[in-house]
Amino acid sequence: MLWSKTLIPTLKEVPAEAEALSHVLMLRAGLIRKLGSGTYSYLPAGYRIINKITSIVREEMNRAGAVEILMPALWPAELLKESGRLEAFGSDVIRFTDRHNRKGVLAPTHEEVVTTLVRDNVDSYKQLPLTLYQVQTKFRDEVRPRFGVLRTREFLMKDAYSFDTDLAGLEKSYQAMYDAYCRIFDRCGLDYVIVEAESGAMGGSRSQEFMVQSDIGDDKYVRCNSCGYAANVEKANIAGPQEPPPAADEANSGPDEVATPGARTIEEVSRFLNAAPERMIKTLLYEVGGRAVAVLLRGDHELNENKLLRALEGENPVAADAGFIEKVTSAPVGFAGPVGLSGSVDIIADKAVMQIEDGITGANKADFHLRGVIPGRDFRPSKITDLRVARDSDPCPECTRPMTLHHGIEVGHLFQLGTKYSDALGAGFPAADGGKKPYIMGCYGIGINRIAAAAVETFADEKGIVWPFEIAPFQVAVLCLDTDSPELMNAARRACNNLQENGIDVILDDRDERPGSKFKDAELVGFPVMVVVGKGYEKNGLLEVQVRSSAERLDMAEEELASEVLKLLDT
User: Fold this and answer.
1) Does domain 51-213+408-456 have CATH number 3.40.50.920?
2) Per-residue b/e over 320-335, b at no fewer than 16 CB within 10 Å?
3) Among 160, 172, 285, 528, which residue has the least CB neighbours within 10 Å?
């Protein structure tokens, strides 16, 4: 490939709209260009990266026994409605009405399509297990697309779906995809962490994410450096003592009532009473199946709604409105507390609440709070459990050592879906006994674009990108520093031919540019190896080889170039 015959429009200045390092460098290196909000064109070098990542993904998916298909990205909205996900996705789904007044969507994912495809075409349990995958464009109407190709409205995904007859089969299919993902991300050169995760709108039970640590990552996870436990903050459990409430005969005097006119929020009450938020007992009221449920958290903690759902054992909580709150507490919003609540109100407390020795909470009376509240003495929860969002330094649930909070870029996700979609869409297989059983499904996604951006975020320096060799747009750039010299151009061409004959991906910079510009562009785009054909060759017939990641420089003869470069790419 000749640089002069392709399109790599590098930029000297940082684009104004770019926030993240990967966004800046992918624009400056001429890999991408923005078309509109959350939509990008991939230029030749950028598309080569995408294709190389896709090839790795395909190779490892095929190796794991998955079979590639291609499903439409445009489909009837009725299909999402049938599974119950049209409302779950909400405004994230891009919707349209065609000329025949039919409602349609641009696919945010493909569970419904693949389930109906297998439902209508698998005739026997003998055809299972089956894992199908595709590499296809997905669409989501992001509220705020940002960080270049990390959060877009249109993106490229590999999504795979396994179909088994039982849970044991699902475990095998899931493990096969887990192993394939490790191989994929290893080959892409990423330093990743596997974390436990929530399933969210995907549904199902077990779920794991593959994260690349990055300060600009949308996701947060905690990790224990002592035992290796790692989980998304939406899923992470927190160790902590769960002391039983004291016996009734241990109760002493009750709490003190104190006027707090106009102070409703944790911040306002904390400031008014000059007390730390850690002393506050926050009371959140919900309506659950017609009854009132009070959820208690420490004032500085945040409710994890997924944990609340688990505590309620599948019942759906609805945040109480002002009228419901006043009916239950006899007070306006902002003054609710667990002390003196009617026995008909269930109280669920986070573990940390039970460790408060001198608490402050609402008095269930307008403009009043209670001081000196002792959990177990002044109120008794019906359930004490872990309810809060994990944060930095929280104790690990496995070894109780402090965990560390990180931001991460999610590049892959595994889900054990179970029968969520097969039940919803009436999809099952004729079993050996003649009956019909639902498919046991798994779902496995990889963000192709995100791998590229995560690699840039991870492997970059002050000069530009430093690509891992397997996904670099070209593994080697040959720089001819004087294109007017027939001797140097002929040597550069021979070097390219030699490298290509040995299976090395190479580009020849044959542009009529100053040597400094060629070096800067090559370093910016991030080719792993540069072969310089310049004054050194004119003097002694040696080529200069530069390694991008280490800045190592080697002089070598033409005949040893290919073998030595192969060694460099292998290290």
Assistant:
1) no
2) beeeebbebbebeebb
3) 172
* pTM for the full predicted model: 0.89
At 76, which helix (H) or strand (E)? strand 74-76
3-state secondary structure of 322: helix
DSSP category for residue 203: -
In whole angstroms, what is the distance from residue 571 CA to residue 539 CA? 30
Do residues 169 and 137 make contact, with C-beta atoms less than 8 angstroms apart? no
pLDDT digits (tens, 9 = 90+) for 283-305: 999 999 889 999 999 999 999 99
Q: Decide: 360 and 369 in contact? Cβ < 8 Å.
A: yes
The CATH class of 474-570 is alpha beta
pLDDT single digits (tens) 249-280: 454 578 999 999 999 999 999 999 999 999 99
Number of residues assigned to the chain:
571
Torsion-angle region of residue 330: left (phi > 0), alpha (psi -120 to 50) or beta?
left
Residue 238 class from Cβ within 10 Å (0-12 exposed, 13-18 middle, 19+ buried)? buried
Compute the distance between CA of residue 52 and CA of residue 513 in angstroms, rounded to an integer. Answer: 29
Can you give the pLDDT at residue 492?
95
- Three-class SS state of 182: helix
pLDDT at 246 over 80: no
Domain boundaries, the chain: 51-213+408-456, 248-385, 474-570
CATH topology of domain 248-385: YbaK protein (3.90.960)
pLDDT over 50 at 85, yes or no: yes
Could you tell me the two tokens for 165?
């007859």
Q: How far apart are CA 382 and CA 293, in angstroms?
A: 10
